[in-house]
Amino acid sequence: xxxxxxxxxxxxxxxxxxxxxxxxxxxxxxxxxxxxxxxxxxxxxxxxxxxxxxxxxxxxxxxxxxxxxxxxxxxxxxxxxxxxxxxxxxxxxxxxxxxxxxxxxxxxxxxxxxxxxxxxxxxxxxxxxxxxxxxxxxxxxxxxxxxxxxxxxxxxxxxxxxxxxxxxxxxxxxxxxxxxxxxxxxxxxxxxxxxxxxxxxxxxxxxxxxxxxxxxxxxxxxxxxxxxxxxxxxxxxxxxxxxxxxxxxxxxxxxxxxxxxxxxxxxxxxxxxxxxxx
Length: 278
Prior knowledge:
Elements (H helix, E strand, L loop, with lengths): L1 H44 L6 H17 L4 E10 L6 E12 L3 E11 L1 H18 L12 E11 L2 E10 L7 E8 L5 E8 L7 E13 L2 E13 L3 E14 L18 E3 L1 E2 L6
Antiparallel strand pairs: 1-2, 1-10, 2-3, 4-5, 5-6, 6-7, 7-8, 8-9, 8-12, 9-10, 10-11
């Protein structure tokens, strides 16, 4: 009887050891498969992450190449102002913005409805945009204005991007403390968000901004934005901006036409992702 129990114990022990060995082998195969899959994926997609310095350098090159493709355009832009509730707008403004490379911008308000605060804010935004255009280098996402820190990788509209933290080098209301998403293939901006490095006004606090970028007739431009702020006494407001229509063409360099007037050789352009089929 004792011999029989001993034999059963040995058999049970051997069985258990065999089971453990099988499990270990399964785990090894699983780990090997995962490692092979990761290596294969990295090789196929080229996901080796460059240094921050390399990313910034390629961003600068992409920005220069993009600016070399700039040509005159008129964009019709819609501005919608919301209060604390987003169901109903407080104001809607439509403006035409004319740009003549390299640094000339002019705007004209075409339509305004609702609260007069909306038009006041839009005019101030457009005046600031025209001033920045005269010295765009002062606000570029460049080492001149920012320190950068690599955060990780994320997708924006199905495009894989490097995610970088923005650390402004000076307190400037036109610089952003936040993040940017840089396309891993084109090194052009896909998205930016954050808060001003310096409060734009005593009346505003908790300011948050986000910007989206896209292709317009071969140029890579900011095509929409959203800014939320708490206005003292009045409460929280949100301004949503959308580029609605573009007209591209040969504008006379010596004169700036009225933004709402079509000029010869101007053709409509649509917002398009450069990776989408033509």
